[in-house]
């Protein structure tokens, strides 16, 4: 077994990944991984993004795979390097994002006997991967070349099909790790650049008879893959006269049926008591909104149908009665609306939504606050833009405050495990593959957590605008009961840090600007969009004031919804 054998096999392996459709990979440095990294870097159809930190590399790969819909390879050396992939692999598992994880390893005879940088990498990620395989790298014979080509295809298609997710190939590599002579050519691949194994997607079964009553509701959650999905769902809801409660991550928050402020509307018990649907249709993942989740939980006697082609089984309160393994876009596009559209039903929701929107506008005014930043980004960014939103308050504010918009930006977020880790890196990954501008909305703790992700700004020449909401700690915890535990809350839960992010911008070669009002935020965004590289736009905020403002909005919204109910009761009284 020579280096030539290793490199012949790995070149065939990378060739197959490219033939299947791979366009991006992430590398990180090391010695044992040399043949894998060099083979990836020498494959012209795959762009290799070089990273220092494996945790950042893996999150970058995750962001790129999420934004492109294609599997991305992440490759590293042996030891804790591989363990640093774990958070992103776990997120990819829960968010159903295709990744091909390539970890280099020492061969079996060098394991557990004191050889350097060697840990047990077998099934390192447990059940978070769809498939684990220990890849022997034998002599490059016609048979083994055929085998490794088929293996690459299997890894690629496994990551992509059904419920997409990560696959893990562990590669024990023997020295010599570097070629000493040119690699001979070989033609073990199929003609015409076809993959060795093709795998057409499984056809989805047509939906059975879905009988639609007059008063239905569509709940649309995260579906980051398919942009036309949002348009089809919005169109169906409009035809059916069903209010559309669409998380911004669904891409469906538009059209005449969109009820943008469901999170605030559904807090009002008098509304939910008087507004009972006869059917709930669910598409995408379950939205984040707690009031929405509580409302769905209370409708256990109402038929709830979930489109779930990837088998995500998202129903923590066990109320879904029909789980359809069919593509919602294809099905809803073909589904006629109910025989009797109840126009008053949708109008009632729309009225509540308009009133709440008025309450939000009146309460927020034109001040530069956290909710206003979320609302403004959703309103301002062009349709070709991608808005990556961090966990914690940014994603919640986006759901609560973003208005419906016909041509809004694509919105992405790591919602598989809701982590605040790796978000900067994920946004850079999205920036690497997105044709339009990418903006990241992130809190200060999340930015501090992945501060090393900013290294991509220096090393990878990518354009990214980071809008940082700095309230010096985890503002979200002020909304929770733990905020009352004053002996330990600040230090151990809120975790203020006093970091100077302008200095971080300097260290990592980013531009930096700190707007003080809404107009200067808009100017800063425009300026960042026109400046190559990464810009950090820091908006200063205060945790206690932010909590008070959210409460104020909630009270104003509740009053607005009550006003609608009272008006509705007066209107209908004569006929009842
Ligand atoms: C990896 C990880 N660790 C811890 C948490 C728990 N957590 C949720 S929100 C949060 C604070 C986030 O603070 P920041 O990013 O400043 O956003 P803010 O709450 O201020 O909006 C933490 C620590 C998490 N979600 N993920
Ligand atoms: Mg914060």
Catalogue the unreliable spans: none
**Distinct bound molecules:** thiamine diphosphate, magnesium ion
Strand content: 5-15%
Let me know the average pLDDT: 95
* Multimeric status of the protein: single chain
Structural class: alpha/beta
Distance between the termini: 87 Å
Q: What does this entry look like structurally?
A:
This protein is an alpha/beta fold and 576 residues long. The protein is 40% helix and 14% strand. The chain has 21 helices and 17 strands. The protein has helices at residues 3-20, 34-41, 54-68, 80-83, 86-95, 142-160, 227-240, 262-265, 269-274, 290-297, 328-334, 343-364, 370-380, 393-401, 423-433, 444-449, 455-459, 489-494, 501-508, 518-529, 543-572, and strands at 24-27, 47-50, 72-76, 99-105, 131-134, 166-172, 216-220, 244-246, 279-283, 304-307, 322-324, 386-389, 410-412, 438-443, 464-470, 511-513, 534-540. A six-stranded parallel sheet has the order 2-1-3-4-6-5, with helices on both faces. A six-stranded parallel sheet has the order 13-12-14-15-17-16, with helices on both faces. A five-stranded parallel sheet has the order 8-7-9-10-11, covered by helices on one side. Helix 14 links the parallel strand 12 and strand 13 (410-412). Helix 1 packs across helix 2 and helix 12 packs antiparallel against helix 21. The termini are far apart. The model has no long low-confidence stretch (mean pLDDT 95). Bound molecules: thiamine diphosphate and magnesium ion (MG). The site of magnesium ion (MG) has 7 residues, from helix 16.
């Amino acid at each position: 077994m020579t280096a030539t054998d290793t490199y012949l096999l790995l070149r065939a392996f990378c060739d197959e990944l490219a033939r299947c459709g791979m366009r991006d990979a992430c590398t990180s440095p090391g010695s044992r991984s040399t043949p894998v990294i060099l083979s990836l870097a020498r494959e012209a159809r795959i762009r290799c993004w070089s990273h220092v930190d494996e945790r950042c590399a893996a999150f970058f790969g995750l962001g790129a795979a999420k934004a492109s819909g294609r599997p991305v390879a992440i490759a590293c050396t042996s030891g804790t390097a591989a363990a640093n992939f774990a958070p992103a692999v776990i997120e990819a598992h829960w968010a159903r994002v295709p990744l091909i994880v390539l970890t280099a390893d020492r061969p079996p005879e060098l394991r557990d006997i004191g050889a350097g940088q060697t840990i047990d990498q077998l099934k390192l990620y447990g059940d978070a991967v769809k498939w684990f395989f220990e890849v022997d790298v034998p002599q490059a014979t016609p048979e083994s070349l055929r085998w490794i080509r088929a293996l690459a295809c299997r890894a690629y298609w496994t990551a992509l099909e059904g419920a997409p997710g990560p696959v893990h190939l562990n590669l024990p590599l023997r020295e010599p790790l570097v070629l000493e002579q040119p690699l001979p050519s070989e033609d073990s691949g199929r003609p015409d650049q076809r993959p060795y194994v093709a795998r057409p997607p499984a056809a989805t079964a047509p939906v059975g008879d879905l009988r639609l009553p007059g008063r239905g509701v569509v709940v649309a959650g995260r579906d980051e893959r398919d942009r036309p999905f949002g348009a089809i769902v919005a169109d169906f809801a409009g035809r059916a006269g069903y209010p559309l409660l669409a998380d911004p991550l669904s891409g469906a928050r538009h059209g005449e049926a969109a009820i943008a402020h469901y999170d605030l509307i559904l807090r009002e018990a008098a509304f939910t008591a008087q507004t009972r649907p006869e059917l709930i249709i669910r598409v995408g993942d379950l939205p984040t909104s707690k009031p929405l989740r509580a409302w769905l939980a209370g409708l256990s006697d109402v038929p709830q149908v979930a489109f779930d082609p990837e088998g995500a089984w998202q129903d923590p309160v066990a109320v879904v009665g029909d789980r359809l393994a069919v593509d919602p876009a294809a099905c809803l596009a073909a589904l006629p609306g109910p025989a009797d559209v109840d126009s008053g039903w949708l109008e009632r929701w729309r009225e509540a939504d308009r009133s709440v929107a008025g309450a939000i506008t009146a309460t927020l005014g034109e001040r530069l606050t956290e909710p206003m930043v979320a609302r403004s980004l959703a309103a301002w960014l062009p349709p070709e833009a991608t808005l990556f939103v961090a966990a914690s308050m940014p994603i919640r504010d986006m759901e609560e405050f973003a208005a419906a918009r016909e041509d809004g930006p694509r919105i992405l977020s790591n919602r598989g495990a809701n982590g605040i880790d790796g978000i900067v890196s994920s946004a850079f990954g999205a920036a690497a593959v997105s044709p339009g501008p990418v903006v990241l909305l992130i809190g200060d703790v999340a930015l501090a957590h992945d501060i090393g992700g900013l290294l991509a700004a220096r090393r990878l020449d990518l354009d990214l605008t980071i809008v940082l909401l700095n309230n010096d700690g985890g503002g979200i915890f002020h909304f929770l009961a733990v905020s009352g535990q004053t002996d330990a809350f600040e230090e151990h839960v809120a975790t203020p840090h006093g970091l100077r992010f302008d200095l971080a911008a300097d260290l990592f070669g980013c531009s930096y600007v700190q707007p003080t009002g809404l107009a200067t935020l808009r100017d800063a965004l425009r300026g960042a969009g026109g400046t190559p590289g990464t810009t950090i736009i820091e908006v200063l905020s205060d945790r206690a004031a932010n909590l008070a403002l959210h409460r104020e909005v909630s009270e104003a919204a509740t009053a607005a919804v009550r006003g609608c109910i009272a008006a509705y009761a007066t209107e209908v009284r004569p006929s009842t």
